[in-house]
Amino acid sequence: MDKAYLQETAKLLVASGKGILAADESTGTIKKRFAAIGVESNPENNRHYRQLLFTTSEIEKYISGVIMFDETLRQKAQGKQFEGKSFVEILTERGIAPGIKVDKGTVDLENFPNEKITEGLDGLRERLIEYKNLGAKFSKWRAVFKIGEGIPSDVCIGLNIEHLSLFTALSQENDLVPIVEPEVLMDGGHSIEQCEKVTYQILKNLFKELIEHKVILPGMLLKPNMVISGKESSKKLTATEIAEATLRCFKEVVPKEVPGIVFLSGGQTPQEATENLNQLNKLDNVPWQLSFSFGRALQETVLKTWMGKDENIDIAQKEFLKRARLNSLARRGEYNSSLEEL
């Protein structure tokens, strides 16, 4: 394990004004995203879309890393100008770190209705070695927790945190910066107070376990949810309320040695995610970089602009660059909703 390399890579991923593109949609997820715009998901169409994103001019100003799915990490760009280079090579040449999602997705947790466990530990060490050899600089593992009657249970929290901790230790062993993603889902009508309580419980247990596993905290990143009410909640929250609850919670449980927090967007709209990230960076001084690792919040409008048509690639790339730039401004607390119209 190269501790200095892990720490330096983690710092680069949360460099000032930059964030991470989550383009690691599983086969099932990208199928749903493409179906919404009337495009069939297959390896070629998936490659075509990811190439649109990765070759957008000037994104290296705002994007520090890209999380990829196994299929994408192995693919090559097409077109004479790319000379058959892999996506890993194209991103690396632009100073963007290639990353890889290494979990195998969630399955039902036996005897615990409405709860999930993330799989993928079997053969993980060997896969991490392979991904490192393919050029990956960092890795990611996602666990999900739903708020409901009596859930998340202690069993669900404990098992998922154990898996997250093992993933983190194995990634660092192979000089891959682990992005640890414990997501409290927005599904349901829970209050922001309930979300704060559950998020606190999960993160407190997570860092206790990570420390017990002797994880190098400066060589990892946390990818959490913002503290926010459920999508079915009737109470409309302001960005300030969300930011205050989020920072209050995180100051209690996230060690200062962690270099950065790269928020997920969850069920928020692109504009909501950007507004909330902006407010987080305006509110208070904290020991961590507050950045983004957005998937849908960076891609939703891009997909709707592209619609699977080659003639729309240029305007879709302009839309992607715009969203990346706006989130870069939010990292500095300089975003304003009026910029959406420019």
Automatic annotation (TrEMBL):
Gene3D superfamilies, per the entry: Aldolase class I
Give the protein name, as stated in the record: Probable fructose-bisphosphate aldolase class 1
One biological process term from GO is: glycolytic process
**GO terms, molecular function:** fructose-bisphosphate aldolase activity
Keyword Transmembrane helix part of the UniProt annotation: no
Pathway linked to the protein: Carbohydrate degradation; glycolysis; D-glyceraldehyde 3-phosphate and glycerone phosphate from D-glucose: step 4/4
Q: Which reaction does it catalyse?
A: beta-D-fructose 1,6-bisphosphate = D-glyceraldehyde 3-phosphate + dihydroxyacetone phosphate
User: What span is annotated as the signal peptide, if there is one?
Assistant: none
Q: Which NCBIfam families match?
A: FrucBisAld_I
- List its EC numbers: 4.1.2.13
Question: Per UniProt, which keywords does this protein have?
Answer: Glycolysis, Lyase
* InterPro entries associated with the record: Aldolase_TIM, FBA_I
Question: How would you classify this enzyme at the top EC level?
Answer: lyase
Name the protein family: Belongs to the class I fructose-bisphosphate aldolase family.
